[in-house]
Design brief:
Homodimer. Its EC number is 2.3.1.31. InterPro entries: AB_hydrolase_1, AB_hydrolase_fold, HAT_MetX-like. Belongs to the AB hydrolase superfamily. MetX family. Its main location: cytoplasm. The structure is a single chain. The chain is α/β, with parallel strands linked by helices. It folds into 2 domains: about 5-165 and about 265-335, 3-Layer(aba) Sandwich (Rossmann fold), CATH 3.40.50.1820; about 170-255, Orthogonal Bundle (Rna Polymerase Sigma Factor, Chain: A), CATH 1.10.1740.110. It is built from 12 helices and 12 strands. An 8-stranded mixed sheet has the order 1-4-6-5-9-10-11-12, with helices on both faces. The protein has a two-stranded antiparallel sheet with strand order 2-3. A two-stranded antiparallel sheet has the order 7-8. Helix 10 links the parallel strand 11 and strand 12. Helix 2 (about 110-125) crosses helix 3 (about 135-150), helix 4 (about 165-180) packs antiparallel against helix 5 and helix 5 (about 195-210) packs across helix 7. About 45% of the residues are buried.
């Protein structure tokens, strides 16, 4: 991997809703070497709380002979706009005020996030992308990008994602934001505002990422006399603590709102019409046990994208299967 780099776009960045960021930065990582024809680019878009180091969070798919092979491909992953791993977000300084944006950071959409990635692509002088890959929120952004710039991408691998966010998904996100709002510290303009709320939000989110089968398998009690301090309780606490050590409530708020905003049909007539604009060869991957992005949403994508094939991952891990089922994903990539 090269050292993480920062792309600094110094022009005003106009958002879909008309708001303007005076400038933006995107942190990104690259791996491998670009060939002379610039034909070996794989671009990965991360999900909600990940970062630009795809070799870290998708390590099972990274390395020689694997999907993300730096000896064969030039691999790029950028931290999404609004996140907290080096890209412009709510804790960034507003150049107009010299102070962090905090609660004044504007609403982002998945279309805005795709637009920012395309600025980085142009900056890197990459006329084509051999493979665009994204899961969950990353898949939503990938779809927007593949519609807006449909001559750029040769292949598209999207996992556990959808054409528009469902009322079910929006409700889960709103419940998480309600947890953040319930934290009295959220009202303050401070980097640590809302962190206990974020801990609770992550615990709520985990219920949508997994399912009853995996909890029964991994968190079942063996002591039938126990009346408190259950494994499942400790697990929820642990997952919340783990996130607040590396993330912040402001970015979580921004990115969950962006996910809610996702609808490829907005301004394009319908989702069906928008998906027809994709020119890439597309592999749509769904997880059979996914509660948050159920398989019917990937079936919809495969039905309406012209050159798409649906693949099903059998997994006990629910939505998180797209991050964990390395062997199955590798086989899909190789087909």
């Amino acid at each position: 991997m090269t050292e993480p780099a920062i792309f600094h776009y110094t022009e005003p960045f106009v958002l879909e809703n008309g708001s303007i960021l005076p400038e933006i930065e995107l942190a990104y990582c690259t791996y491998g070497k670009l060939n002379a024809e610039k034909s070996n680019v794989i671009w990965v878009i991360h999900a909600l709380t990940a970062n630009a180091d795809v070799a870290d969070w998708w390590a099972g798919l990274f390395g020689t002979g694997k999907m993300l092979d730096p000896e064969k491909y030039f691999i790029i992953c950028a931290n999404n706009l609004g996140s907290c791993y080096g890209s412009t977000g709510a804790l960034s300084l507003n150049p107009k005020t010299g102070e962090p944006y905090f609660h004044s950071f504007p609403l982002l959409t998945t279309r805005d996030m795709a637009k920012a990635l395309d600025l980085l692509r142009k900056h890197l002088d990459l006329p084509r992308v051999y493979y665009l890959i994204g899961g969950s929120l990353g898949g939503q952004i990938a779809l927007e990008w593949a519609i807006e710039q449909n001559e750029i991408f040769e292949n598209l691998l999207i996992l556990a994602t959808n054409a528009f966010h469902s009322p079910w998904g929006i409700a889960f996100n709103e419940a998480q934001r309600m947890a953040i709002q319930a934290d009295a510290s959220w009202q303050y303009a401070h980097p640590q505002a809302g962190m206990m709320g974020l801990k609770a939000a992550r615990a709520i989110a985990l219920l949508s990422y997994r399912n009853i089968e995996i909890y029964n398998q991994r968190q079942q009690e063996t002591d039938i006399e126990k009346t408190d301090n259950y494994k499942a309780s400790s697990y929820q606490q642990y997952q919340g603590e783990k996130l607040i050590r590396r993330f912040n409530a402001f970015s979580y708020w921004t990115l969950s709102k962006a996910m809610d905003s996702h609808h490829v049909g907005r301004g394009r007539g319908s989702a069906e019409k928008a998906l027809q604009e994709i020119r890439a060869r597309v592999k749509v991957v769904g997880v059979t046990s996914d509660l948050l992005f159920p398989l019917q949403e990937q079936k919809f994508l495969a039905e309406h994208i012209p050159n798409a094939t649906l693949y099903e991952l059998n997994s006990l891990y629910g939505h998180d299967g797209f991050l964990l089922e390395f062997e199955q994903i590798q086989r899909v990539f190789e087909i």
